[in-house]
Amino acid sequence: MTQIRPRGAVAPLRRPAATARRATVDAVVASLRPEEPVHCLRPHAVSDAARAFMAAFPGDVLYAVKCNAEPTMLRAIAAGGVAHFDCASEAEVRLVRSLFPEAAIHFMHPVKSRGAIRAAWSQHGVRDFVLDTDAELTKILQETGDGDDLGLVVRLALPKGNAAYDLSGKFGAAPAEAAALLRAARPHAARLGLSFHVGSQCMDPSAWTRALALAAQVIAASGVAVEVVDVGGGFPVAYPGSEPPPLAAFMDAIRDGAALLPQGVRLWAEPGRALVAGGASVVVQVQQRRGDALYVNDGVYGALSDAGAPGFRFPHRLVRPDAEAAEVTRTFTLFGPTCDSADVMRGPWTLPADVAEGDWIEIGQLGAYGTALRTAFNGFDRAHVTEVSDSPMLTTAGYEAVAARAA
Ligand SMILES: *Cc1c(COP(=O)(O)O)cnc(C)c1O
Predict the structure, then answer these.
(1) Distance between CA atoms of 84 and 107, rounded to whole angstroms?
(2) How far, rounded to the nearest angstrom, does the alpha carbon of residue 123 sit from its chain's CA centroid?
(3) CB of 39 closer than 6 A to ligand 1?
(4) Which 3-state string (H, E, C) describes 299-352?
(5) Could you tell me if the CB of 106 is within 6 A of ligand 1?
(6) Which atom in ligand 1 lies closest to the alpha carbon of residue 108?
(7) How much distance in Å is there from the Cα of 129 to the middle of ligand 1?
(8) Residues 44, 363: Cα–Cα separation, whole Å
């Protein structure tokens, strides 16, 4: 099928001419001396995180594709044992199906185009669809012909919680509405589910217990049987100065909440960030220094969106292959390459005091919402991609045990 690539679409990450896998980020910098940002992927870390999450979670694990849709990352997730994918668009569905003919794909966006529903159902074998309104239920039934083996999942809105990003402001039915939607969907559903999303980078395990308690109330109020409860994503990872409770604390909280559900309900989870965050560093180059301001070749319109206005902090270090760096450090602000004055990452970024034009900086934990949020704004979308086999700059408690066993 011909793919129309709109003008200005972001350029795919390019492989350097010599594509041999290098062991470390330092080796990548020493041999490529890259003048464009380089995304250094660690598929082994992604597979390890996927294995750890699969081992810990008492149900089916769906990877939230939006978080990082690079084929290398998707293959690493599958290699870690994940066979279910949470997609939100027809393009994501098509990509996952092209890589994994056997995967179970779940269409988890509550507002879909009719064409996307039709294509997912009839061309790509998608059977599960999420909804949070009567209008969407009608649309799904019309476009799938109310088919056999249709799975319907009602998205429940949650009260505002402790996540870095609240995701109930936009989607989700209030509890009474959700109960009514479960009743309306029941006669059409081979599988009926209830889902929620506590929000991204949610540091509080009890958010899942509270959400599951609400889900249990909604199911009771609906008066119908439900086969699946989907606890969403939002599982946090470590960033500098922000160490989440270990993975086991989240699983305990989920088990506590799930005990309130009717017997036999199957659990699903949709982790994104937790599986891929450690799986990529981005190497940027300093193009100019002005006092404590460093102008670098990637920014908020590239892989560093979350380091801009959302103010996430990322692990970082200087990479200077040919010379020693000063032992004294100081703090810097990074400016991205576009002409927008909002293209600034305040950090603070602590680096050797003598950092200078031409130096490189490795920025870690960018596997989640780094690559995925790049744009072509101002023409700065020429990043390269390569693979390394060193360890992520930070590990998140609970994900390293399996990693250590695999090492
Ligand atoms: C974004 C999203 C996820 C993944 O969230 P993470 O915070 O990356 O784990 C899961 N489910 C839904 C519905 C989402 O919108």
Answers:
(1) 11
(2) 26
(3) no
(4) CCCCCCHHHCCCCCCCCEEEECCCCCCCCCEEEEEEECCCCCCCCEEEEEEEEE
(5) no
(6) 13
(7) 15
(8) 18
- The domains of the chain, with CATH numbers, are 25-41+277-387 (2.40.37.10), 43-276 (3.20.20.10)
Residue 8 has a pLDDT of 59
Pocket probe for ligand 1: among 46, 63, 67, 170, the residue whose CB has the most ligand atoms within 8 Å is: 67
- 298, 257 Cβ separation under 8 angstroms: no
Q: Which two tokens stand for residue 269?
A: 């989870």
Which pair of tokens denotes residue 312? 């996430």
Which helix (H) or strand (E) segment holds residue 192: the answer is: strand 191-195
Q: In the numeric block, which tokens belong to residue 127? A: 């059977």
Q: Write the burial class of residue 49 (CB in 10 Å: 0-12 exposed, 13-18 middle, 19+ buried).
A: buried
Tokens found for residue 92: 């994501």
Q: Is the CB of 235 under 6 A from ligand 1?
A: yes
> pLDDT, tens digit, for every residue of 102-136?
999 999 999 999 999 999 999 999 999 999 999 99
Q: Is the CB of 66 under 6 A from ligand 1?
A: yes
Structure tokens at 393: 């700059």
Is residue 110 within 6 Å of ligand 1 at its C-beta? no
Question: In the predicted model, is pLDDT for residue 14 greater than 90?
Answer: no
Phi then psi dihedrals of residue 36, to 5 deg: -115, 160
Distance CA 141, CA 355 (A): 60
Left (φ > 0), alpha (ψ -120 to 50) or beta: where does 8 sit? left
* Sign of the Cα pseudo-torsion (137, 140, 142, 147, in order): negative
State both tokens at 153. Answer: 């999942």
Pocket flag, ligand 1, residue 343 (CB < 6 Å) = no
Q: Is 64 in the pocket of ligand 1 (CB under 6 A)?
A: yes
Residue 211 CB-density burial (10 A; 0-12 exposed, 13-18 middle, 19+ buried): buried
Distance 80 CA to ligand 1 centre (A): 19
- What phi, psi does 10 have (nearest 5°)? -65, 135
The first and second tokens of residue 89, run together, are: 């668009």
Given pLDDT bands bounded at 50, 70 and 90, which one contains residue 165? Answer: low
Given a contact cutoff of 8 angstroms between Cβ atoms, the answer to whether 190 and 151 are in contact is yes
